Amino acid sequence: MSEQAILKLEGVHTHIGAYHILHGVDFEVPTGQVTMLLGRNGAGKTTTLRTIMGLWQASRGHVFFDGRAIGGEKGRLTTPDISTLGIAYVPENMGIFSDLSVRENILLAARKARSVDDIDTQRLEWLFGLFPAIRKFWLYPAGKLSGGQKQMLAICRAMIEPRRLLLIDEPSKGLAPAIVQNLIAALRELKATQTTVLLVEQNFSMAKALGDRVAVMDDGRIVHKGEMAELAQDESLQQRLLGLSLGAHQ
């Protein structure tokens, strides 16, 4: 594993029932950077995140976190054990509890806290600064939040305790452009704290704004790895890998 990489996948294959979804996935996530995982629908991006988290087990290959085997042939940790290493996952469906308040959702995610008073006040204020809507709607039922506010709550839940790696699956999906811009601004602030993020995204302007590195998937394989800025500047490569131009999504 590269000295600067906190996560590495080597030759990862994942089967779901009779379906062979991942076919030898290889890439690294450098520490303190935002790595974008891009690709057309059905390319295997969500399966990759779920395999990293142990929600689906790699049938072959290896998943390493900070040099330790957490999935695949050399080690198969459970999802709770993987979480305790400092990895948080924000799924596409956000995973919030609609009938509970924003406050109660945050408290449930803060596993070491029995009450809100036990939560690190400085960390909570930091999250309020990133996502002001969380403070504003603190006592509201989470199910009554807008789509963008729910997404912000999901990220806050993942970050309420210190995390070494954050996996986020399509945070901008279904959001209005103005809300996407707010989300980009918040994630930029998070990026400035050197939080390591692996981000699956279909919104290419968000990918360009946030990504340091990029891995592109197609049919369960990594078909391109490199600097996000290089992909953003190469329209022919965008067209070949993704079928779309980043320039058309400003």
How would you sum up this structure, described in words?
With 250 residues, the chain is of the alpha/beta class. The chain is built from ten helices and ten strands. It starts with a strand and ends in an 8-residue tail after the last helix. Strands 6-7-8-3-9-10 form a six-stranded mixed β-sheet, with helices on both faces. A four-stranded antiparallel β-sheet has the order 2-1-4-5, covered by helices on one side. The longest helix is centred in the last third of the chain and has 16 residues, at 177-192. α7 (177-192) links the parallel β7 and β8.
Flag low-confidence runs: 245-250
The CATH topology of the largest domain turns out to be: Rossmann fold
Series of H and E elements:
EEEHEEHEHHHHEHEHEEHH
Q: CATH homologous superfamily of the largest domain?
A: P-loop containing nucleotide triphosphate hydrolases
Helix-and-strand structural type? alpha/beta
Strand content: 25-35%
Assign the CATH architecture of the largest domain.
3-Layer(aba) Sandwich
Which whole number gives the mean pLDDT? 90
Question: Quick one: CATH class of the largest domain?
Answer: Alpha Beta
Q: What is the subunit arrangement here?
A: single chain
Number of helices: 10
Family: Belongs to the ABC transporter superfamily.
Keywords: Amino-acid transport, ATP-binding, Cell membrane, Membrane, Nucleotide-binding, Transport
Organism: Piscinibacter terrae
Protein name: ABC transporter ATP-binding protein
